[in-house]
Amino acid sequence: MRLIHEIEQDQIIVKEAEEEYIYCTELKTINDKTNILMKHLRHAWEYHSFKVGCGSYIDMEKIKQRQFQQYDGLYSVIEQQPLQSDMRICERGLYLYAYHIGTWDELSSLYEKILDYTKQHHYHLSGYAYERGISELSLLHRSEYVTEIKIKCEKRNNQF
Questions:
Q1: Does residue 151 sit within a domain?
Q2: Given 10, 98, 109, 152, which residue has the most CB atoms within 10 angstroms?
Q3: What digits encode the pLDDT tens for the residues 91-134?
Q4: Beta-ladder partners of 94
Q5: Whole-angstrom Cα distance, residue 147 to residue 53?
Q6: Nearest-CA neighbor of 144 among 109, 104, 101?
Q7: What's this model's pTM, rounded to 2 decimal places?
Q8: What is the spatial order of strands in the sheet that 73-78 belongs to?
Q9: Structural domain of 111
Q10: What span, in angstroms and rounded, lies between the C-alpha atoms of 86 and 83?
Q11: In total, how many domains does the chain have?
Q12: What is the CATH number of the domain that holds 82?
């Protein structure tokens, strides 16, 4: 995890990432977010100390359609290998990482920058966009909160 003082506003980098195991909870309805969040965290805790709190994920097709607030679910990184249908593997490989300093309602502009960046640099994004906070929310003002977005990517040939 990066130190907060090393992060630039709306910074985008592409780098290799190691395999990660995640526990997922789908958001079928958004009527009762608090109960869904509490249930997710309770189950993640059962999988032996998840590594970091909780994040959210959005299908890349929704991102491409500019549906930046249409979340598909919640996730937590866990230490054990997935054994059940609600667990996934984020494969080792090339990922785009983007960082935003500020409130969550400002993330739409970062997603627009991600789409512009991938077009300009010839990357194809796939799977899900995984969002998580990487700063201690209770210690910072909302405007200083740091969000990391992680998306599987691959370099395309520069052919037209």
A1: yes
A2: 98
A3: 999 999 999 998 888 899 999 999 999 999 999 999 999 999 88
A4: 16
A5: 13
A6: 101
A7: 0.81
A8: 11-17, 93-101, 146-155, 123-133, 55-59, 73-78, 20-26, 87-90
A9: 4-155
A10: 8
A11: 1
A12: 3.20.80.10
